[in-house]
Write a structure and sequence with these properties.
Strand content: 5-15%
Number of strands: 2
Helix content: 55-70%
Number of domains: 1
Largest sheet: 2 strands, antiparallel
Shape: elongated
Number of helices: 2
Order of helices and strands: HEEH
Radius of gyration: 26 Å
Distance between the termini: 32 Å
Structural class: mainly alpha
Length: about 100
């Protein structure tokens, strides 16, 4: 299985390297106030891909924090209910 994984990585690397070599043309990005940025097409695509991934991670971050707070609240509830029921910690269901 490890060999298959490395072969797949090598094929993907070669495909992306071929894409980068074949698309080395200069592109112009025009902004407001006459500002123009010239760079290679591959660099521009890489930057916008990375920016999109970062925005996706940031959008997901709030949901992850909300889920962690909910898990902590539920763990506290379990501890309180076990304490009220008089169940010691060795026989109770422990939150992981």
């Amino acid at each position: 299985m490890s060999y298959l994984n490395w072969i797949l990585r090598a094929v993907l690397f070669i495909a992306l390297l071929g894409f980068a070599v074949k698309n080395d043309q200069t592109v112009e990005l025009r902004y407001f106030f006459g500002y123009i940025w010239q760079s290679s097409l591959v660099i521009v695509l890489l930057l916008f891909f990375a920016a999109g991934a970062a925005v996706g991670v940031l959008a997901m971050f709030a949901n992850v924090l909300q889920q962690r707070r909910e898990i902590a609240r539920l763990k506290r509830e379990i501890r309180v209910k076990n304490k009220l029921a008089g169940v010691d910690d060795t026989h109770s269901i422990q939150p992981s």
